[in-house]
Design goal:
Length: 107
């Protein structure tokens, strides 16, 4: 399961509204790259693919492709609007190492 904090929910819904994607869901995934080997992806989508895993948390629908799910199970999606930078933050209990910017990780 992927959990969504209240701050991530508010920001995601705000961005979807601004982009005219109010009926979309959050798609999260993992791809190769970054300082630590794997990078997080976050987009707004309205198409389901074969093998997608669907979750509902805190009133938010989150979809993860089958391959990425193995890396993201138990992750919490948060949003930080602080002085150290704004953006979505993945709190991933499976990550052994993360880079300084928090955008990539390794297992």
């Amino acid at each position: 399961m992927i959990q969504v904090t209240e701050s991530a929910k508010k920001r995601a819904f705000s961005l979807m509204q601004e982009d005219g994607k109010a009926n979309h869901f959050i798609r999260v995934g993992v791809k190769g790259g970054g300082c630590s080997g794997l990078m997080y992806e976050l987009t707004f989508d309205n198409n389901l693919n074969d093998g997608d895993k669907e979750f509902q948390d805190n009133g938010v629908k989150v979809v993860v492709d089958k391959k990425s799910y193995l890396y993201l199970v138990g992750t919490t999606l948060d949003y930080s609007g602080g002085l150290n930078g704004k953006g979505f933050v993945f709190v991933n209990p499976n990550a052994d190492r993360t880079c300084g910017c928090g955008e990539s990780f390794s297992l």
